[in-house]
């Protein structure tokens, strides 16, 4: 909960007095490994704040899974287009490990904004954060090589390789697991050559 308080006060600019209202409507939910927060075809009615664990979001196409995002502690979690439009989600959000998520339901979110317009700052922070993350991901996919996409991912989540299986990372990068292994080996060899000079 301290991480959420820090976001509210230090990043969003709300005051200490606003925190109890948010705390009151957040529900802590424990998820086992491989549980779903949302499935394709279901409408998303929440914004989550990941406290513990790791999640992934993915879409299914022709029976194959394509990872489109990862969530590590401190992340905002939502099928956000579905949340905004109240239409069915096109993808899934699934836990990669036991996880704890603080859930803010849409009805409570709307009540907060009615209670105090200052909570629009929270809405803007959520929208901006999720939008910018999506834009960076899409730009990286279009403009960067697989190696640069890998570096981008490590920049976002420095310890992701200790948490997320390699085949999920490869799917996110749009390459095969064996290609990721080769790329990591070449990176390691090049770094070793560079440091030995």
UniProtKB/TrEMBL annotation:
Any Pfam family hit: cNMP_binding
PROSITE patterns, per database record: CNMP_BINDING_3
Annotated ranges, domain Cyclic nucleotide-binding: 13-113
Signal peptide: none
Gene3D superfamilies: Jelly Rolls
Listed name of the protein: Crp/Fnr family transcriptional regulator
């Amino acid at each position: 909960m301290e991480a959420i308080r820090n976001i509210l006060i230090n990043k969003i600019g709300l005051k200490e007095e606003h925190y109890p209202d948010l705390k009151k409507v957040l529900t802590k939910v424990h998820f086992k490994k491989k549980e779903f927060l949302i499935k394709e075809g279901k409408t998303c009615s929440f914004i989550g704040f990941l406290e513990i664990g790791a999640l992934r979001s993915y879409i299914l196409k022709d029976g194959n899974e394509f990872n489109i995002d990862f969530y590590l502690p401190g992340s905002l979690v939502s099928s956000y287009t579905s949340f905004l439009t109240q239409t069915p989600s096109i993808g899934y959000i699934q836990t990669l490990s036991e996880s704890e998520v603080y859930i803010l339901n849409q009805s409570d979110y709307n009540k907060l904004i009615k209670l105090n317009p200052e909570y629009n700052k929270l809405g803007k922070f959520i929208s901006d954060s999720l939008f910018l993350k999506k834009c960076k991901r899409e730009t990286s996919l279009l403009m960067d090589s697989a190696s640069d996409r890998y570096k981008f991912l490590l920049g976002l989540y420095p310890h992701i390789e200790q948490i997320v299986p390699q085949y999920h990372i490869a799917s996110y990068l749009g390459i095969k697991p064996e290609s990721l292994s080769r790329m990591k080996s070449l990176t390691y060899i090049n770094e070793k050559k560079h440091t030995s000079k």
